[in-house]
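Thread title: Can someone regenerate the structure for this chain?

I was given the following input by a collaborator and told the matching structure tokens would be attached. They weren't. Posting the sequence so someone can regenerate them.
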Amino acid sequence: MRTSRIRTRIEAHVRPGPGRLLPPLLTGAAAAAALAGAVLALLDSTSPLRAPCTLFFLLAAPALAIGAALRGLDPYGRAVTALAGAVAVDMLVAQAMLTLHRWSVRGGVAAVALLSVLLLLLTALRERISGKHTQK
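Best answer:
Regenerated them for you:
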């Protein structure tokens, strides 16, 4: 008798060999750099890593949120769209803050983080609602 095993999505994408742990490692390093950039900007640090890490956060946070919302696209299209959307979100936040005469680095980082978290929550809520409808 042969038993069949259902493969999970993670198991389906794991490559055999020495490089199989590289994508999760790079993802973790990118998340740490983005988080460090947000923290350094919010604490108004004078570290030389503040500018590049904050710029990475300002691109990565909205790109992650937009990419999570666009699960139906192929990976390259999703990456390009998410990056373009991240630049648009950053520009809209900067434009709004300049128009209201409330420009600050801390405020910009906080606003981008808030918008990114809201978009991620809306995406999770949409998936949860659509999951309930398909289970009935």
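The chain is about 75% helix and 0% strand.
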